[in-house]
Specification:
Helix content is 59%, strand content 0%. It is an all-alpha fold. The model has no long low-confidence stretch (mean pLDDT 78).
Length: 103
């Protein structure tokens, strides 16, 4: 979030998702390293490491659902990907509270 806000400003918009892709990838890499260093898991997201674990699990779940839906629809590598509504619905309520706060 902080990288995005620094680049696009509060409430900013990234016109093309790929413009921020490298930054987002680096953020996920940092998160994975932080989670890997954490000695204990807290499933409620109350610590930074626990929150990152929770985000990582939600992201993996969504990515898997999108891949399955795309494959099931016969989509190819050059076809647009549509996010399955069922997989997206309710994700916000499953995020750690700090991830949903606005700057």
């Amino acid at each position: 979030r902080d990288s995005f806000v620094a680049r696009y400003g509060p409430g900013g918009v990234c016109p093309h998702v790929w413009d921020f892709g490298a930054d987002a990838n680096e953020a996920w890499q940092r998160a994975a390293r932080a989670v890997g260093r954490a000695p204990e898991a807290d499933g409620d997201g109350s610590t930074a490491a626990g929150g990152l674990r929770q985000l990582t699990a939600l992201r993996a779940e969504l990515v898997d659902a999108v891949h399955r839906a795309h494959a099931d629809s016969g989509g190819g590598p050059d076809d647009d990907v549509v996010l399955p509504a069922g997989a997206v619905t309710g994700l916000g309520s499953r995020l750690p509270s700090w991830a949903t706060r606005r700057p």
